[in-house]
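At this stage, I wrote out one protein, both as residues and as discrete backbone shape codes, and that material follows here.
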Amino acid sequence: MDAQELSAEILILAYAQGCFPMPAAENSQIIHWYRPDPRAIIPIDMIHVSQSMKRELRRRDISIRIDGAFEDVMRACAERPDTWISDEFVRAYGELHRLGFAHSLEVLREGKMVGGIYGVTLGSAFFAESMFHHEKNMSKLALIRLAEHLLRQGYTLLECQFLTDHLRSLGAVEIDASKYMDMLNDALKDAVSFVP
């Protein structure tokens, strides 16, 4: 598929079937669809918070904002040497955001964005796409606050694609694709709202 063909409709259908897009390594204009096995998830009610992160969570100069700067979060996530977040991805996920199917959580220190995360939501599933930090630990803080928010809102599935050491330190685990699809299909039957 050509990157210019990415649309909200195609993305919604893909996520509902357990797939997500990424550009081909050799040509960012070509989109490949992935359905990993095993799949990484974070049990929402079991996210791991280390002692050092507990201190960060108590900081009074940090605040959290929902959907305050969706495109800015995407562009901040793209600020790395190897990024798959092209202008076409920003356009397509921006369309999803305007339709209410993609959201961001921003971490602010004294009004300045220092971390954040964004993803797609269907039913009670949240598909975490990418996160960033401009200050130490702020992407971890964003993910922890996201899990807390999802739990309050009634979400049942927090998917994070592939297991990394960073995600494992926060409680991410791998499950096989068939179990993931069972969880996803159950989540798609729910009607919850990301926005309080």
About this structure: The longest strand covers residues 112-122.
